[in-house]
Amino acid sequence: MGLSLYEIKKIESIARQQKDGISLAQAALRVGGVHEAVREHAREVLLTDKADYYGDSQGLRSLRWDLTQYFKKRYGAQVSLQQVMVSHGAIGAFAALCAGILKPGDEVVLPEPTYPAYKNTVSAVGGRAIFVPAYVSDNGEPWQLDIDRIHKTITSKTKLLVLANPSNPLGAVLKIEELEKLAHLAEKYGFYLVIDEAYEDHVFTGKFDSAVGLAARFEHVVRLGSFSKNFAMSGWRVGSMVASQKLIDYLVPFQDAFFSCPNQLVQFAASYALSRPDLIKEARDKVQDGYRIAMADLAPLVENGMIANMVNPSAAFFAFFKVPDCQNTIDLVYDMLHAVRVAVVPGIDFGPSFGNYIRLCYARNPEYLRDGIGRLKNYFEKTLPKRVHHQGFEQKTL
């Protein structure tokens, strides 16, 4: 079965080639890059031979130990070294899980809207993605997860249920009661509940309840983590998995088959980063500034009805909104990319039920973000109305 890149990747590639293009598409923390202190630590490691050789296929023991202490201090969770696997980004851990668990035709439940890489990873090993529109919002109220809808999609072929918490693209945050309910469903039916907590450090409203404690206690709960969003290390590719020792032991050979071992240099840098919680706060403060700018600057488009159903997110990096009377925003997004050179993501990437939505990433420096949203507003207020009076693009899109 062939795979195709989802639209985020295609759009980002075009935006990079535009001399004055602005990308509010890919979910990278672009507010100054990796902190200089982390870079300096990596330079110091490079002066030794510590990163020059193959390492443990499960990840550096020192980094796994640091992660267990982080989980204990932050969440009060008791996690053993044997329950942690370091990976090539969170998606590397998910790939090992899919390769190890799924057989052709097995089903993976993806509550919509969902991170698009999950589907491609599932498809790559012959699994079948089952989309269920499980997040609901009425009249701009906060998005809520309908667990009953999820329950109804579970069959004897269900092997995984995958959720990002906080949500990408919604910024919704699940409560511990919801996580526990899902965990009990997984234990009852024997599938794995996978909770991806890449955005754990970017929660603006309310309390964040991690699934790491559940993953340490329940046989069928898996928690994924990442250094991409809290330390701006998305290009360095380092993540982690917490699960039962039995599952970790089973999956390490799959990771070894794909990568031999995670990148040694990056793991030393990640260990250092964990010792600097002040760096997380610095990044979070910058993202919150982006959040405030995006909500304020997009408000006029909401008020004049050009975009709708934009719920103020509780977490993560995104504004996610509907374009009224537009059934599929793909043509709209590509036209915007070429007309005003600003990149955003069509909702269809996040599941078939959200084709009339757009996702905008606000984890950007203030001037860059304001310029990008200004171009987007110009497109909706001036460029798009002109196109409505012509044939072609508008008839397909609006």
Helices and strands, in N-to-C order? HEHHEHEHEEEHEHEHEEHHHEHEEEHH
- Helix percentage range: 40-55%
Highest CATH level, the class of the largest domain: Alpha Beta
User: Order of strands in the sheet with the most strands?
Assistant: 2-10-9-8-7-3-4
Give the N-terminus to C-terminus distance in angstroms: 33 Å
Q: Beta fraction of the residues?
A: 5-15%
Largest sheet: 7 strands, mixed
Total count of domains: 2
Give the mean pLDDT.
93
CATH architecture name of the largest domain: 3-Layer(aba) Sandwich
Oligomer: single chain
Structural class: alpha/beta
What does this entry look like structurally?
By secondary structure, the protein is an alpha/beta fold. The chain has two domains: 7-34 and 279-384, Aspartate Aminotransferase, domain 1 (Alpha-Beta Complex); 36-275, 3-Layer(aba) Sandwich (Aspartate Aminotransferase, domain 2). Helices cover 44% and strands 14% of the residues. The chain is built from 14 helices and 14 strands. It has helices at 7-17, 36-46, 61-75, 89-101, 116-124, 147-153, 176-189, 212-217, 245-259, 264-274, 277-303, 330-339, 366-388, 393-397, and strands spanning 22-23, 84-87, 107-111, 128-132, 135-136, 144-145, 158-164, 192-196, 221-226, 239-242, 318-322, 342-343, 345-346, 357-361. A seven-stranded mixed sheet has the order 2-10-9-8-7-3-4, with helices on both faces. Strands 11-14-13 form a three-stranded antiparallel sheet. Strands 1-12 form a two-stranded parallel sheet. Strand 3, helix 5 (116-124) and strand 4 (128-132) form a beta-alpha-beta unit. Helix 2 crosses helix 10, helix 3 packs parallel to helix 10 (264-274) and helix 4 packs parallel to helix 5 (116-124). The longest helix is centred in the last third of the chain and has 27 residues, at 277-303. Residues 394-398 have low confidence and may be disordered.
